[in-house]
């Protein structure tokens, strides 16, 4: 999977603390009727945040495995003092522009946003207090700094100070376009804001994200428009792709391009 996230949280207490408390062993997972506790609350949140969509409960997951769900799927959990969602529709890879229903759902609580994608080394995170954006950063090596709003948070400062430079892997490779790797900062942001990491060394007080159970939901566009748009984008990408190129290591130890019909 790589390091990918699509996380949105509303909190009126420290979110890592809320998640640590949620990860403690519970006396029972199911009620007498076989319904997971909190599933109805989580579904209500998903419905409020996705007006006009068809919301159907599906199998749940965990925060570690499902922080970047597939298209048309959302995971959510309502905790004492916090609500956490994993939803790629709500949490895009571009700088955040919160829909009205998100601000309404927050109701003055702190809003935390974290989007990270290891394929393109992109990171966006943001924090709102009382509906006001106080910090937002969106960065990738291809685009540079797309958005930089507010003062850097404490966990960011060593990265901006050049304490985590990216070392070139290949001779002749130019300097990395940023003073840090976005995924490295992304993991630091994930730990500071949400209390856990996906890759890298865990620390003793990190949240064990594999113990955080999430309720799963299918969130489908009844018009089919979103799927049509995704299909159109895929066709466009495929049309611009060059034919595949294959390489084989030669006797000199170097890689040489070979044709489709060349023997391996």
Q: Could you characterize the architecture of this molecule?
A:
The protein is α+β, with helices and mostly antiparallel strands. It contains six helices and eleven strands. It has one domain. A nine-stranded antiparallel sheet has the order 2-9-3-4-1-5-6-7-8, with helices on both faces. Pfam families: DUF6928.
Topology diagram in text:
Blueprint lengths: L3 E8 L3 H8 L16 H11 L4 E9 L10 E7 L2 E6 L12 H7 L3 E8 L4 E8 L2 E9 L3 E6 L7 H4 L21 H13 L18 E8 L4 H16 L5 E4 L5 E4 L6
Antiparallel strand pairs: 1-4, 1-5, 2-9, 3-4, 3-9, 5-6, 6-7, 7-8, 10-11
Pfam family, one: DUF6928
InterPro entries: DUF6928
Order of helices and strands: EHHEEEHEEEEHHEHEE
Proportion in β-strands: 25-35%
> Average pLDDT value?
88
- Rounded to an integer in angstroms, the radius of gyration calculated over CA atoms is 21 Å
Q: What characteristic shape results from the CA principal axes?
A: globular
Strand order of the largest sheet: 2-9-3-4-1-5-6-7-8
The class by helix and strand makeup works out as: alpha+beta
InterPro entries: DUF6928
